[in-house]
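>> received
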Amino acid sequence: MKPVDRATGARPAWGWLGAVQSLLCVLVSTVAVQRGAAADPDRTVPGGPGYRAKTVTFDAAHAPGFKLLPAATTGIRFTNTLGTELSLTNTPVNNGSGLALGDVDGDGWCDIYFCRIDGPNVLYRNLGGWRFEDVTESAGVACPGQHSTGATFADVDGDGDLDLLVNSLGGGTRLFVNDGRGHFVERIDAGLDRHSAGMSMALADIDGDGDLDLYVSNYRTSTILDQPQTRFGFSVAGGKPVLTKVNGVPVSDPGMAGRFQLNAAGMPREVGEPGALYLNDGKGRFLRAPFSDRFSDEEGKPMEEPRDWGLSVMFRDIDGDGAPDIYVCNDTDSPDRIWINDGHGRFRALGTKSVRHVSLSSMGVDFADINRDGRDDFLVVDMMPRRHSDRLTFMEHERAPIPVPGQFMDRPQYGANTLFLARADGTYAEVAALMGVQATDWSWNPQFVDVDLDGYEDLIIANGFHRNVLDSDAAARVNAEKKARRLSPMQELQLRKLYPAWPGSNPCFRNTGGGGFEEMGRGWGFDGSGVSQGMAMGDLDNDGDLDVVMNNLNGEASVLRNEGGGARVAVRLRGAGGNTQGIGARIKVRGGPVEQTQEMIAGGRYLSGAEALRVFAAGRGTNLEVEVKWRGGRRSVVRVKANQVCEIDERDAVAVAVETAKAPEAAVFEDASAKIGHVHPEEGYEELQRQPLLPRSLGQMGPGVAWCDLNGDGKEDLVVGSGKGGRLRVLAGNGQGGFGGVNDPAWGAVAADDQTSVVAWSAEPGSG
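>> returned
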C-alpha cells in the first residue's frame, strides 16, 4: 500500500525509496508555483529512460536566504544538554554532538535524528507541512546511557532502506538495521569497535565491490594530560628520558598502551586513537582493515599507524579517478591525513608538495568546485577569531612553527582556516585569506551550498564553543589562583569556569563568482548565536532546495527553512547494487548559469550526515542535461526540466570506454634555477615568538632583487640581496640564458640585516 501524503492526504504515485520503473515518455513542461497554492498533490510527471521526475513548488519571487522556524511550529523541542560538572571533568564531551537526515520510513519525507552528549538521542518523523513527531521509542534508537557524538543514515546492507550508525565516547560505533518502515534493530555482530571514542563517520565503496565501506574518526573517551596534578614517572635509557608511569599507572597497562609519547623536548604528549577503516561484506557486516594492509606513505612504503585526535572524515574523489579518497581532520598537533585511493581500496598519503600546509586544529572539511573550473577545491575550518582584538587574547596550545629556509618537504600547521584551490597539476594553492574566509571563530562544520542558486556554491559554517579555553586573560587568572593557594584537583577543575563562553554567530558567505566570498549572515537569515556543532542539510519540505538543521550545545536545535526562489534541479540517485543511493557518483549539470558538478556522499560532515540529495541552479534554462558518472564506471545522461526533483537509475546507465591518461600539457615555464647557481643565505626567525602582539609576521619578506646592465655590455645582469650575515650577489648575464658571478670586493660587505630591497643603476656607457 502506498503511504499517505502527509501534506495533502493524497497517496503519492511513488516514493523515493520505492522500486524504480523506467517510464518511456517525454517530459512535460512544469512551472514553479507559489508555496501553498493549489496544485496537483501528486505532482509526479512522466520521466524518460533511466529516470523519473517530480515537479516542485515554491515562491519563485522570494529572495535567497533562510528563516528560523520556532519549536512551536515544528514540534522539535530538542536540546543537546551538557551539565557543568561533566563539562569540567571530561574535556572531549565539549566537542558536542551531531545529527543525521534521511527518509527512514520510505514515505518521501526527510526525517531527523539528533544525538545527545549526555542523555538519550531523539528521532523525529517528518509529518509534512513543517511538523515533526518524536518516534524514538517505537523506532528503538534512543541509545541511552552513552555520550553520543556522531550519526549518519546509510543503506549498509543494500536492501533499499536507510540504516543508522551512531558513535559515542567509549561506546564506539553501533549499527541499527532498518526494517523499511522506520523500526530499527541493533546488529550486535556488525563487527564494529564498541569501545573506541568514535566521532564522525563517512561511507563509500572504496574497493569497487558495490557496497558501502566505513571510516570512523576516533578521538579519546577522556583525556589525562589536561587533568589537574597529573604525575609522570621517568627512567633514563641510553642517555634519553623514557616515560614509565602516568599517575602511578605503568605505561604498559592496557589502558595506557600507546597513549603517551615524548616530544622533541622530552615532554609527555598525549595522543589520540587510530581511525578505523571497515570493509563491508555486502550484508551490513564489517571487518576492520589492518592499517598496514591498506595504507602507506607517499612513497608507497609501510608506515606506523598514526594515533591522531580525529574529529571528522570525508570520502571524496580528490584526484578525479572515480575512486573515493579520504580526508581526515585532526585536532591539535595531529596533522590532517589525506589518503589517495589506488582504485582498489588501498591508500597512499598525498605528496607533501601537493598541499604545502594545513590547519592546526582541523574540525571539519568540505569540497566544492568554487570557481567552476571542473576541479574540486576544499575548505578546512579551524578557530582563528574574526576580530583582531580577540586574536590578541587567543592563546594557541603551541606556537606556529618557525619556517626553516629552504625546507620544502614538510607540511606545517597554522591556526586558521585553509581554502585549497585546485591546480591542473594536482597541487593546491591555499587562498583562504585571499578569498576572505581565513577567520570564522571557533568553527566546526563547513558546508558548501548554492543558497542564491546562481551556479556558484556558497558557504555556511556552524561555530561556537562552550568555554574558550584559549583565552589568555582567563588563563592568567587561573594561573594566579593556582599560585595564590594550594588547591585540590577538584578545586582546580572548578577554576575552568573562569574561561568565558564563546557563543559564535554562525557565518554565511556568498560566492561572488569564484573570485572570493562576501559575508551574508544577517542578509540571508543565517546569523544565529550559540554553540552550533552538528549541522546537516536536507529537503524537509520537498520543494527542491536544501534546508538546514543544527544541533546546538545547551541550546534548542535550529531548523532553518530555505526561502530562496531561484530555479533549481534536485538530483537523487538509485544505485543498481548494494550502493542503493549512488554514493560516490559524480553529477554534472549543463544548461544552467554555468556548468556545475557535485558528488554524492554519505556522512562526512562533522558528527553528522546529510540527506543524499544534490541541488543545482537552473537559471533561465528550461531544458538541462544531467550526467552521472557512477562509482562503477558507467554513465547516465538525461534531459530534465527546471524546477524538478529527478531520480536517476543506474540500471539504465551505459558502459563508457576507459579514459586514457592525458599527456601533461607543455609547461609555459621551465625551472632555470640551476643556471643561476645561487643559494640564498637565511636564518630562521619568527618575530611573533618574541612579540606575540604584532599584527602580522614581517620577517619572511625574502631578498630584494634588481635587473640592470651594470657593465654596459648590452646584457641584463641580476643583483640579489642577502639575508642577515650573507653578502650581496651580482650575477652577470652571458646573453645565453646563464650567469656568471662577479668577484668584486665592493659587493662583499657582510649584510647586517636582511636586504629586502635592492635598487641598481649603472653609469657605464651603453647601460641605458
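>> DSSP finds ten helices and 52 strands in the chain.
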